[in-house]
Amino acid sequence: MVDVVVLGSMAFDSLETPFGKVDMALGGSATYAATAASLFVKPGIVSIVGTDFPEEHSKFLESRGIDLKGVEHAEGKTFYWKGKYGFDINAAETLDVQLNVVEGFKPKVPEEYKNADYLFLGNFEPAIQKSVLEQMAKRPKLVVSDTMNYYIEKDREAVLEMVKLSDIALMNDGEARQLFKTSSLVEAAKEILKLDSKIAIIKKGEHGCIFMTKDSFFSAPGYPLEKVVDPTGAGDSFAGTLIGYLAKTGDLSDENVRKAIVYASAVASYNAEGFSLDNLKKISLEDIDKRVNEFKKIVEF
Amino acid sequence: MVDVVVLGSMAFDSLETPFGKVDMALGGSATYAATAASLFVKPGIVSIVGTDFPEEHSKFLESRGIDLKGVEHAEGKTFYWKGKYGFDINAAETLDVQLNVVEGFKPKVPEEYKNADYLFLGNFEPAIQKSVLEQMAKRPKLVVSDTMNYYIEKDREAVLEMVKLSDIALMNDGEARQLFKTSSLVEAAKEILKLDSKIAIIKKGEHGCIFMTKDSFFSAPGYPLEKVVDPTGAGDSFAGTLIGYLAKTGDLSDENVRKAIVYASAVASYNAEGFSLDNLKKISLEDIDKRVNEFKKIVEF
Predict the structure, then answer these.
(1) Predicted ipTM?
(2) What pTM was computed for the model?
(3) Spatial CB neighbours of B246, under 8 Å, sequence gap ≥ 6
(4) Chain B touched by A212 (CB under 8 Å)
(5) E strands, B86-165, where?
(6) B89 to A217: CB separation less than 8 angstroms, yes or no
(7) Do B184 and A212 count as a contact with CB atoms less than 8 A apart?
(8) Distance to chain B for A69, nearest Cα, Å
(9) How many CB pairs under 8 A join A and B?
(10) Are B106 and B131 in contact (CB under 8 A)?
């Protein structure tokens, strides 16, 4: 039995930022999200890797209590992404993408996952996200999904359907503006709420994020990082912490979702201070609490 | 005797936004800043207008207790700006600028202004800003200055000197990145502090603003406006409220500057909900307090 089911990619990332570079580092949305969620609860991953995926990465994930029964090992190579971040650290330039085993991926949700109350549908085609949701034995208590500008351009209607099927459809400011064809993030958040969502969360990178329900508006600041060493996985660490914290507390009240967002922002900020999963591997709950307290001081007036 | 001396332009603005347009409306940095400051204290303006500047505008400013002894009436036309805001409401497209009487402007600070404790150096050439500072009988208790990408491109060194001469050098995120050649706003704020400033404030438009001293970091959220009707003068309303509130309270403590920033954000948000000075003319201290309380709820967790 797992607490949170995490759908997403497992990948090798080669990337360069103004602060250095890594080659064939562990990456992928499921990897980041599940590692972050494992700080709070037991996640299980639904994903696919190739025969080149090293045992040491699986061992690391298992050492965090992450269940890998839902990870298919297929003939071929693991998903590969190569990118570069320049002066504007918010925007990655993709130099190479090799889908490899992800091409034609049909996710299979293990029996032991099907009654989980918390489901995170990470960055994959909306059809793959929907298939995982449909394989669940019952509607989970909370479905969080993520999207990407690539899918909005390719099939806007399918992305809108996933927003409708999710309780929280995470997106960043650029994606929200693009999906709802508006310059106003408040207007975009209202559009999300119209699509049967009780909660709208729009991430704004270094500017933090906003949270809106029909009765409430919350703005979480960005943590003041002097150096963003590697922003890869920030959104997935955010999502994994959010759903992990909510699964652990079992409390979806306005007050607790605000707290979960600040925890998520704290973990994402740590993640951005190191390459790959370096910092996610290191940080403890005490580190996170410390940063959450800093967030309190940052907004105090 | 005035409480705050405000240097800046007085202008006619013709502009178009997605929500409508106005022609030859009252504008200019001094107009916005002094009107905002007059909610709290008695400002005096140092500026220049042409013979076409209508009596009704002067009467309005005087009705707010604003002293106009420092406004030179020169032969010729008043400064004119024509602009357009598109889908991205944060960036104005300038369609026409006519400096008119501002060309060759030599500011003269009236005797009655020279002992004021609070000085706002609005958006003008650094040399004009410096000249006003030098005409003061003593160093004011607080000097707040503003700049603009135009001057950074034209004479970076002169802008840096003004940052050094000011206690608070206001700039927006784009200007801060440009002036200090960095993508990190935290790094830019540290550079401001290195230049003898005790306080760095960087405005981020819809994302609010950050405030940094050597011991403290504060992030004020943007007010969740669904419609930004006209962003013209938002920065000047912010600056005018900031210095007006600080002059009224006479308290430059960390805690009080944070409050002043939230008051300034509240007034700037009202201003952006209407064209020209329409909303600045209407709002009361009660309206502002109401919005400041909303800001409290927005950041609560």
Answers:
(1) 0.90
(2) 0.94
(3) B118, B142, B252, B256, B257, B260
(4) yes
(5) 92-98, 118-121, 142-146
(6) no
(7) no
(8) 37
(9) 89
(10) yes
